[in-house]
Design goal:
By secondary structure, the protein is mainly alpha-helical. The protein has helices at residues 13-16, 25-50, 54-65, 71-78, 82-94, 116-124, 132-139, 142-159; strands at residues 4-5, 23-24, 98-102, 110-114. Helix 4 (71-78) crosses helix 5.
Amino acid sequence: MGRMLTNNDLPMARELEDNKDPITTAQVLRRFRVVFNAVRSHFQQVEKQVGLGGAQVWALSVVRDNPGIGVSLLAKNMDIHQSTASNLVKTLQRKELINMSKGVEDRRNVQLHVSPTGLALLGQAPGPFEGVLPEALDRLPPKTLLRLDSDLGQLIQLLKADEQAGGIPLAEL
C-alpha cells in the first residue's frame, strides 16, 4: 500500500517534472475515496429527500425532458444497458411516476411520459439529477478529460476489471 510513485511511474511525467515530491499510492487512493464519497453522499441525499434512488431520479428527469422517449433512447441518453433502463422504467411505472403508451405509428414502440406525481417528485429532488460526477466531468477541459480517460483505462487494465460494469449507473452500485 505504501509504494512510492515517482514521476517516472506516471504516464504524464512531463507535467509533473516541476513537482519533485513523490506521490504515494495512499495519496491517490485518498483522492478516489473523496470522489466516491462525494458521489455516494449525493445519492444518499437524493434518496433521503425523495425516497427514490439516484438512477431512478435521473431516468425520470430524462423522460421529463424528452416526452415520448422510448426505453432504447432512454438507455442511450443515460449511457446504460437497455435491460437496466427497462428495469428503471418498470420501477418508475410501478410507483406511478411515469406513464407508458403505445406509439401512434408503430404500436410496438412504447412512449414514456412523466406523470403529475413524477413531476412533483422531481421538483423536490436535489440536482444534478444525473449525479455530481457526470456534471463535474462535463466541466473539465477536453484535454484533462482525455488524459483522465487514458489513465483510468490503464487502471482498469491493471485491475482486470469487467468493462461491462461501465453500463451500470453509479447510483445502482
